[in-house]
Amino acid sequence: MSLDAALLEIVLLSLRVSGFALLLSVLLGIPAGLLLGLRRFPGRRLAVAAVYTGMAFPPVVIGLFVYLLLSRNGPLGGLALPFIPSLFTPQAMILAQTILAFPLVAGFTMAAVGGVDPALRVQVRALGASHWQATWAVLEEARGGVVAAVAAGFGGIISEVGAVMIVGGNIEHRTRVLTTAIVLETGKGNFDLAIALSLVLLGLAFSANFLIVYLQGRSFDP
Amino acid sequence: MNEILYALSGVTKAYGRRTVLAVDDLTIRRGETLAVVGPSGAGKSTLLRLLNFLEPAATGTISFGGQTIVGGDDAPLAVLRRITTVFQRPVLLKRTVAANVAYGLGLRGQRNTQAVVAKILDAVGLSHLAGEKARSLSGGEAQRVALARALVLHPDVLLLDEPTANLDPANVALIEQAVAQMCREQGTTVVFVTHNLFQARRMGDRVALMLDGRLVEVGDTDAFFEHPVDPRTAAFVRGEMVY
Lengths: 222, 243
Ligand SMILES: Nc1ncnc2c1ncn2[C@@H]1O[C@H](COP(=O)(O)OP(=O)(O)OP(=O)(O)O)[C@@H](O)[C@H]1O
Ligand SMILES: [Mg+2]
Hints:
The complex is a heterodimer.
Chain A: H1 3-38, H2 44-55, H3 59-70, H4 90-114, H5 118-126, H6 131-141, H7 143-158, H8 162-168, H9 178-187, H10 191-220
Helix pairs in contact in A: 1-4, 1-7, 2-4, 3-4, 3-8, 4-7, 4-8, 5-6, 7-10, 9-10
Chain B: E1 4-15, E2 18-29, E3 33-37, H1 44-51, E4 59-64, E5 67-68, H2 77-80, E6 83-86, H3 97-107, H4 114-123, H5 139-151, E7 157-161, H6 169-186, E8 189-193, H7 197-203, E9 206-211, E10 214-220, H8 221-226, H9 231-237
Parallel strand pairs in B: 3-8, 3-9, 6-7, 7-8
Antiparallel strand pairs in B: 1-2, 1-4, 4-5, 9-10
Helix pairs in contact in B: 3-5, 4-5
The complex binds adenosine-5'-triphosphate (ATP) and magnesium ion.
Adenosine-5'-triphosphate (ATP) binds at residues 15, 20, 38, 40-46, 88 of chain B.
């Protein structure tokens, strides 16, 4: 396998793992952020504290947690159910990264919708909005912050190494992603390759963020 | 003009421990224009929020078209959509002026609203700003956008909280005409809050004075100004301190 093909394989797997994890964490994190930012309910403060803690959680700890969960002796690994991923697979890495990105997406979304003038909701209700329409109006108003939440989630997982290393195992052709490849090549003294991989990673992170900012400016500004 | 649209009985509203509104009895007839006057903090805006069923009352009942309605999150959407308020401090959406005006129609599933939106913007003298970002408008322009956004819905009930507070005399006349025309043509019921007693007199079929959350006097406009029953009303219309 040529160097280019190997590089491409690693890049594609990185995008697949982090892309899926981002999708899942957005689907879960935006509703959670809305709930925490807009509703008052018992246990809310506890949940907010948990989200803040999650936002600053070290990826290796999440990696360890998921490892223990999925290992053969763990509570989920022992069940051997079809939808529970096995260790050292991309699916296990997706699970770990979803857990990492979820609090970032939820936390930033919460802050964004919490910053919207509460009078807006009353205003759109007075114009005839249903509860869903009113919530949507608040989300649209906070769109800049919500897009930032998605970008923060992506930035948090595409560049993390601890969790994917532990649950993925950095297996060539199977679970090797950009960050784990960089660690490996640096350890082997292959600095040229490590630097090349790093530049690709930087480029990816930058392009994704640029795309998000660009889309935000294009389609959302009136 | 005789059919009763709203009937309030024993309605109170409290924030924390403070009761800010206590309306023992108030009826509003379909198609009438009721002006609400009173000093700052009297509870006028609070009354409008209750009439729009945006908040629940603490006690008492509000019937609307013969049906008792509980305001707040559980208020029936069909009722909510027959009423709209132009707030004292209108919140415009982060969109164009035209999109703000079309917003309520969109909520009701109406598309292709360009023509009606253009017409209403013309009526409030804002055609030239249709494509501008609503958030960049001056206070008076924003207020007229908020009014256009309400008028375009053809509500059964239009609640106006100091709708002309930021406007110059020419625009005040324009807005008063637009509202009066809608009442005439569509039989809209209007409740409006104003600090301008001349406006209350020009626009109101009846006038209500609110003090400390209570309705001191509600009467036909001429009687309210010429022969007030309550001495506090007499003092208020003379511009004397009553609070
Ligand atoms: N959401 C709220 N929370 C707490 N207190 C409130 C709230 N809304 C209104 N109040 C209080 O209720 C009282 C009546 O307020 P309201 O806005 O109805 O007065 P107003 O007659 O409209 O006054 P103004 O002429 O200044 O607009 C005020 O003392 C106000 O502080
Ligand atoms: Mg007020």
